[in-house]
Design goal:
Cytochrome Bc1 Complex, Chain D, domain 2, 238 residues, 57% helix, binds heme C, 2 domains, mainly alpha
Length: 238
């Protein structure tokens, strides 16, 4: 009897431990991408509205935040999350907050029953509520406007930190941009583009350092910088 009791206690402890392990938290952002991005654009704000098969997730969430009313912020969040959990499984024209014209052009969302679980939807809806946030959006727009006011080279200097090694007018640990400009002509444009994209070494003997590659810079920015450098000897820093 005593043996059985011990065995039961041990069993309980083992099973108990297994159960009390913290449940892995579902990643709403990743799930949103896996389950919803086929139809909904997830960017905030979307880079383009062409070829949309569904409203952007930003538009969907802002819409729900506007239409579903509550004076209490945490109740508001719960109401919206509950709407999303229901709508994705049981969508209908009468429940949709989409205006009639958009609804006609998109068609009602096909039910995602069987493709996403309730727990996954809970995590997705939480993420949507937190991420598609008006204040966050205003910040993103303000940052975009700030970058748009900068000249190309000022923006690239800030984003890529070229000025850690280069000055415009004076040699530092790397040749000054004006000296690079004086050495080359428009015929060297492709080679300068290559140097920025893939890095450079040995072209400027007096500098021991290697120029690292800038693989993540857009082609537009790389070409813009090559053109800016080439014209520097005539135009100065504009
Ligand atoms: C096969 C395409 C498709 C997929 C996949 C899809 N949706 Fe949709 N969804 C739509 C379309 C089209 C609409 C607009 C028409 C409507 O309101 O039903 C829509 C509308 C919605 C709406 C209602 C918007 C409103 O204004 O009432 C919500 C909420 C929504 N989707 C959430 C999701 C979530 C969350 C996922 C991922 C789990 C998802 N959708 C996956 C196509 C899709
Ligand atoms: C870690 C230091 C460092 C950073 C950061 C850096 N460079 Fe350089 N850069 C160098 C060095 C060193 C050279 C000289 C390499 C050589 O001798 O070939 C150089 C050379 C160059 C050249 C001349 C290449 C040639 O073909 O003669 C260009 C153009 C250039 N850098 C542009 C840039 C731009 C644009 C940025 C920012 C996007 C940048 N660099 C960031 C160190 C750097």
């Amino acid at each position: 009897m005593r043996k059985l009791y011990l065995a039961l206690v041990t069993l309980f402890v083992i099973v108990g431990c297994g159960d009390s392990k913290p449940k892995q938290k579902l990643d709403g952002e990743e799930l949103l991408y896996q389950k919803c991005s086929k139809c909904h654009n997830l960017d905030m704000p979307p880079k383009s509205y062409d070829n949309e098969v569904a409203p952007s997730m930003m538009a969907v969430t802002f819409h729900l935040k506007d239409f579903i009313k509550s004076n209490n912020p945490s109740e508001h969040e719960i109401k919206i999350i509950n709407f999303i959990k229901d709508y994705v499984i049981n969508p209908s024209a009468s429940k949709s907050f989409c205006d009639k014209k958009s609804l006609e052009s998109y068609g009602v969302m096909p039910s995602q029953k069987g493709k996403v679980t309730t727990d996954e939807l809970e995590a997705i809806a939480h993420y949507m509520y937190a991420n598609y946030d008006n204040k966050k959006m205003l910040k993103i727009m303000a940052e975009k406007a700030r970058l748009a006011r900068m000249s190309l080279y000022e923006r690239v200097f800030e984003q890529q930190r070229c000025t850690n090694c280069h000055n415009i007018n004076k040699d530092k640990v790397a040749p000054s941009f004006i000296n690079i400009s004086k050495r080359y002509t428009i015929k060297d444009r492709d080679s300068l583009i290559k140097s920025i994209k893939d890095g450079s070494k040995g072209k400027w003997k007096q500098f021991k350092l290697i120029m690292p590659p800038f693989k993540k810079m857009s082609n537009k920015d790389i070409e813009g910088m090559a053109d800016w450098i080439l014209k520097l000897k005539e135009n100065g820093a504009k």
